[in-house]
Design a protein that fits this description.
The protein is of the alpha/beta class.
């Protein structure tokens, strides 16, 4: 399987979503058709507004890219029902080169596993188990089906019985003597065109007479069988083959492994690998939440290559990446943030530029390569750019952003100023979301010298909603910090009109007490002329940590 996900950071903002869609489009147009835009967090009101504005669906949601059982399982399960015969199971195994077949009931629940080893052991017993080799546990219907034969006279055809197989390949006297050792009602007599043996078996009222070779049976013999309630089956095979096939008519429910190991499709592969390899089983049913079998996983499946790859946009730190990013190949990184600690398995394309948005870099990829930029994609990249630069007013804005924005306006036919006003008026996290959702809408985790902390940002038009909800926001921020074990957590609330921010900070007192911004209330600070988390707030916070040497 080949899959390349172009994906932004957790709790994605507009730039992360738009740059993922845009860069996936660029890669498809430049020879990577398997590139797919993805996201590892929910969209918000503003992102939804942008997507609706340009008629583009949201990227595919992928919460975890680590390999799951479902990624390697075989979804087309070759199975057999509990009443299927061993002969049918062997045919299935031979046709599809299988060693194990799951036995599924009508509701697709696994009743057990049928292994080639166990079936073979039953059909070809060891020398010290010869008595068992005569046992035929079957119904007449299953016997006839296994033999590809025809029931000429039938009594209780569906009733399963424990029969004893006797071959009528001897003189009449010897056969008569042999009959004395077994209960007649349990005997299945296999015989060729020996009419004397056939008639003796019928007179003695054996359970079933199996005539081999496909030879015709005299009408008077069949009539005698009806009178004596002896069933008669005609087999097209010779006597030796017929006798061998009779035992294979047993229902598989009698020879399956009722104990087995099953896994859930969504379980990470790393969690089951050791259990599976240490198990004596060769295959493992994969079940859903209702216990229905949705796939089969074999030990050899663990050796199959699974080619899932990632292209990271708008971030370059694993702490911000989709879960499982450290377990798959990262091909490229397109970003405009500081460079964090990230190790890749091989050399990669890493494009990191000090511009105002990742959407700027993606648009420039189209321009530099001379690749046609569709109008809807140009609109998305414009949205990502103005969102991250507050329409070129953020201190992160560069001349490149201004030049790119001008070109995007022409291609998309969208006026950036008008669109920015509509964008920030389209949805406020503080009015549309709970406090716990609002403080995590655009939240990033950072690590600095072993210290883990988070910084979130919300852009608003004015601070009215913030002051109404300050208490619950502080409480939600502290709960978020505790649940993740951060040293401290911060929330930057930015007023796009006044180009200033308020900062909420909770956590270790050594950090919060070191903040020298004007404190308006406990945990709330005034940050005039501060609007950028990346270029203004984060460097300040990391400097504080260096000074404290935590």
């Amino acid at each position: 399987m080949s899959e390349i996900l172009v994906i932004g950071h957790r709790n994605p903002d507009t730039d992360a979503i738009c740059s993922a869609i845009g860069y996936a489009e660029f890669k498809r147009r430049t020879g990577m058709p398997e590139a797919v835009a993805a996201r590892c967090g929910d969209t918000n009101g503003r992102i939804d507004f942008v997507l609706r504005s340009f008629g583009v669906p949201a990227p595919r949601f992928v919460a975890d890219v680590s390999l799951k059982v479902g990624d390697l399982m075989q979804p087309n399960v070759r199975s057999i029902g509990p009443d299927g015969t061993a002969a049918e199971a062997l045919g299935l195994m031979d046709e599809h080169n299988l060693r194990v077949v799951p036995v599924l009931d009508d509701e697709q629940r696994c009743r057990g596993l049928l292994s080639l080893f166990k079936v073979s052991k039953f059909l070809f017993p060891a020398a010290n188990r010869l008595i068992d080799s005569r046992r035929v546990l079957s119904s007449l219907r299953s016997l006839a089906k296994t033999l590809a034969g025809e029931i000429l006279v039938g009594h209780n055809e569906e009733e399963e019985q424990d029969l004893i197989l006797v071959i009528g390949a001897m003189g009449l006297d010897s056969f008569s003597e042999r009959l004395e050792h077994y209960p007649r009602e349990k005997l299945a007599v296999v015989v060729g065109d020996r009419w004397d043996i056939q008639n003796l078996a019928i007179r003695e009222r054996v359970r079933v007479l199996i005539a081999t070779g496909g030879l015709s049976i005299e009408p008077k013999t069949l009539e005698a069988a009806r009178r004596n309630q002896v069933s008669v089956i005609s087999s097209p095979h010779d006597t030796a083959t017929t006798a061998a096939l009779c035992r294979a008519s047993i229902a598989v429910r009698h020879v399956l492994h009722e104990t087995f190991l099953a896994f859930r499709a969504e379980t990470p592969l790393n969690e089951v690998r050791s259990r599976a390899t240490a198990s004596t089983f060769h295959a493992f049913p994969v079940i859903d939440a209702e216990g229905r079998t949705v796939g089969i996983l074999s030990k050899t499946d663990f050796l199959k290559p699974f080619d899932r790859k990632l292209i990271l946009v708008d971030h370059n730190e694993l702490s911000q990446a989709v879960v499982g990013a450290d377990q798959v190949n990262i091909l490229e990184i397109i970003d405009h943030h500081r460079i964090g600690a990230l190790t890749t398995q091989q050399p990669i394309l890493f494009r990191n530029e000090p511009v105002g948005s990742t959407s700027t870099i993606v648009a420039d990829c189209f321009f530099r390569s001379g690749v046609e930029l569709p109008s809807p994609i140009a609109g998305l990249l414009l949205a990502g750019l103005v969102s991250d630069t507050l329409n070129l007013t953020s201190p992160t804005t560069t001349s490149v952003d201004k030049e790119v924005l001008g070109r995007l306006e022409k291609i998309s036919g969208v006026n950036a100023r008008d669109f920015t006003e509509k964008l920030f008026a389209s949805g406020s996290p503080l009015t549309q979301r709970s406090a716990s959702q609002a403080i995590a809408t655009d939240c990033k985790e950072y690590q600095e010298d072993g210290v883990r902390f988070s910084v979130a940002q919300i852009e608003e038009i004015g601070f009215t909603q913030f002051w109404k909800r300050k208490a619950e926001l502080l409480e939600a921020l502290e709960s978020y910090r505790n649940s993740r074990g951060y040293l401290f957590s911060a929330l930057l609330v930015t007023d796009v009109n006044s180009q200033s921010s308020l900062l909420l900070a909770v956590g270790d007192g050594r950090v919060t007490s070191h903040l020298d911004y004007p404190r308006l209330e406990p945990g709330i600070y005034e940050l005039k002329d501060i609007v950028s988390r990346k270029k203004q707030l984060l460097p300040y916070l990391t400097h504080c940590l260096e000074q404290l040497r935590l």
